[in-house]
Design brief:
With 480 residues, the chain is α+β, with helices and mostly antiparallel strands. 54% of the residues lie in helices and 17% in strands. The strands form 3 sheets. The protein has a 5-stranded antiparallel beta sheet, with helices on both faces. The chain has a 5-stranded mixed beta sheet with strand order 7-9-10-12-11. Strands 6-8 form a two-stranded antiparallel ribbon. A hairpin with a 4-residue loop joins β1 and β2. α1 packs antiparallel against α2, α2 runs parallel beside α3 and α12 packs antiparallel against α13.
Length: 480
Amino acid sequence: MNIKTKLTFGIGVLVAMIVLLVVLSAVNLQILTATEPDSPAAGPGLQRALMWIYIVGIACILIGIGMLFRLPSSINKPIKELTNGIMEIANHNYQKRLNLGPNEEFIEVAESFNRMAERLAEYRASTLSDLLAGKKYIEAIVNSITEPIIGLNKDKQIVFVNEAALNVLNLKREAIINQSAPELSLKNDLLRRLIRELLNPGDTKEPLKIYADNKESYFQAKYIPIKMVETGEKEQTYIGDVILLKNITEFKELDAAKTTFISTISHELKTPISAILMSLQLLEDKRVGALNEEQEELSKSIKENSERLLGITGELLNLTQVEAGKLQLMPKITKPIELIDYAIKANRVQAERFGIQIEVEYPEEKVSKLFVDSEKIAWVLTNLLSNAIRYSPENGRVIIGARQEDDYVEMYVQDFGKGIDPRYHQSIFDRYFRVPGTKVQGSGLGLSISKDFVEAHNGTLTIQSEVGKGSRFVIRFKVK
């Protein structure tokens, strides 16, 4: 029997009972009015009949009322169970099943609900299986990479790490997965340095020296922020970082071998070059005999090339000192004008050869003294002035000077040549770099070594240049 039938039946029974009760009451009233209570007609039989009529009528009314009260509860209970079932599904409990009783309408609802729950459970099982398979596949890829890799979420918790990273960190996987990296770093020096660089990135990234593979190894850390676009969103959201350690031990070893080779060759070359210059000096001595015009030209060419070769070997020796970390400074109190005078004297012959006029700009007011290695800073100024002369047009001019601004002393060299494209302002300080289209010969090491020498004194070497307007190189030191 469905709910509609039950409702119709209950109302019908209630109405019938009420009608019957009304009819019986009317009959009873007619009997009472037609018969005197004390007459023989109003005997015990009539009284019993009236009593049963009342009892049956009241019972019918009670049954009807009971059915009316029971009917809402028979509807409300299945609806509550259905609501609870929907909430369970919403909470991902796909094992929930309903049994709403024998009502036809609720039987269909329960069957539909149960079918839906079964399909959701199957879909979840298949999706979870795919996710697990994909997770294992990604883990296999990460572990197959020989470079150490560490993955962090946005809360800086370690979410994945490969075997190579565990090896260099000397930690167990179960001890770090889903753990806070900053907290773990308190007991691990390498992890502490990695997290410090991640949170406070510096301008220079020095290689990490780590004992791995039974030897001292060098690693370059690379920090990769991970972002993704959420479903329904357009902007990328930061979700974490990946720390990749690239093993550069092989390159370090090759670089050390190269530095040793260059240092050895430079030392070996200085001896024969010095011998050539000494022999040339003896050859030019008038006491031996006068040289003809052709011999003098040949002697001049030999001297120029020997001095150039000697300058290159000197640059190579300086480079090997910087690369090997053996650059030794012997600072002393020096006046900036003394460094400028040294650079001018060292380049006077070259300036006269190209017809370049060297102008000095030095303020009348007192300029603070510098506490620097005068030999190395003088070498830097000499190199800058030499470059300015070579890149200036013939019969041009070059400015060298100094000035003080608050607690800083600046020394500068300015030419009025072709200038340098802003695209190359950073690259010109790289070793062996040459500006495209440059015809002037050189080793490509002078500016790189100059920058290293200046930065070793905690100073800066910068360039200000525009194409067609010349170049200005500025050395800047803080005066203590």
